[in-house]
Amino acid sequence: MEVLGLGIELLVLFVGFGFMVGVFFGFFGMGGSFLVTPALLILGYPAPVAIGSSMAFVFGTAVIATMKHHDVGSVDYKLGALMFVGIAVGIEIGKYGVLALDALGQAELVVGTVYVLLLAAIGGLFVRSALRQDAADDGTDADPDEIPEIAKKIKSYNVPPMVTLTDGSKASMWTISGVGGGVGVVSGFLGVGGGFIRMPAIYYLIGVPLAAAVGTSLFGALMSGAVGSFSYGLDGVVDLGVVTALLAGSALGARIGSAATAYVNEADVTIYFGIMLLLASLAVAFGELANWLAMPILDTVSFVLLVGSSAFVTVVIFYYGARTIRTGSHPAATSPEGND
C-alpha cells in the first residue's frame, strides 16, 4: 500500500523527520532545510531530486514563518525585493552546477562532501558559541537595534548606487546584490534556504538590526524556495510525495518549537544542536563511504546517526520545556527565530 507514492514505513519516517525538523526551525529559527537534503541523500535519492524536493520544503516552511514575522513587523520587504534578482540568478547558477555534475555521475559525491564540511563547520560554530556564552555570560542584554562594527564600516564607504531601507538606513546595491547572489548559489547547489548564511550577511554586511535581519532572511528563504522549487520542478526533479509528508510533520513541529521558546532558554540546548550537526556531518560521511566501499551496513549507521541525533535534541527541548512548566519559571530571554 502506498500513500503519496510512498510506502507506509517511508511515509511515517518522513512525517516524523519533518516533525523534528519543524521543531528545530520553530525553536532555533534554523536547522530545517540543511538537514533534509542529507537525509534524502542517505536514503538513496539522486542529488537533483534531494535538492529540488528540499527547495520545495524550504518554500513551504518559509511561508509560514514569514507570515509570523510579518505580524510583528520584522520583515523588510524592500530589502528582500532588492535581493531577489541576485537570489534568482544565483539559484540558476547553483542548479546548473548540480545538473552538470549529475551528467558526469559525480553529483552525489560532490554535494555529499560539501555537506560533510558544511555541517561540521556550522556544528563546530554552535558548540564553540555555546561554550563561549557559558564562560562569558554576564547577564547583560544587547541593544536589539545595534548593528556590528563591521556593518558600520561597510556602510561608511557609501559605494553608489545607495538605497534607503525600510528602517531609514542606507546600503549599497552592490552589497545587497552580492549577498543575494552568493546565498542564491548556495541555495541552488545544496537545496537549502541559505538562512544560516543570509541572516548573518544581512546583519553583518548590510547592517540591518537583528530582529529585522531574521525576518527578512526568512522572506529571502521564501523567495529562494519559490524560485528553486519552480526551477527544479521544470526539470521534473521535485518529489511532491516526499515534500508533502515532510511539510505535514513540520507544520506541527514548527508550532511546538515556536511555543517552546517561551519556556526554554536557547542557550541551554544550543550545544546539543551543535553536537547534532557534527553527528549529521558524520552521518553523511558514512553514507558516502557506504557508496565508495559498497558496504550497506554503513548506510544503516548513517541513518541511525542522523535520525537518532535529531530525535535526541528534540527530546532535550521537550525536557527543558516540561521542567520549566513544572517549576513555574521562565527563561530570562530567548533569541529571535528565523534562519532556515
From TrEMBL:
Keywords: Cell membrane, Membrane, Transmembrane, Transmembrane helix. The chain crosses the membrane at residues 6-28, 40-65, 77-97, 109-127, 171-190, 202-222, 242-264, 271-294, 300-320. One of its GO terms (cellular component) is plasma membrane. InterPro entries: TM_pro_TauE-like. The keyword GTP-binding does not apply. It comes from the Archaea. The keyword Cell membrane applies. It is a multi-pass membrane protein. It is found in: Cell membrane; Membrane. Belongs to the 4-toluene sulfonate uptake permease (TSUP) (TC 2.A.102) family. This is Probable membrane transporter protein. The lineage of its organism: Archaea, Methanobacteriati, Methanobacteriota, Stenosarchaea group, Halobacteria.
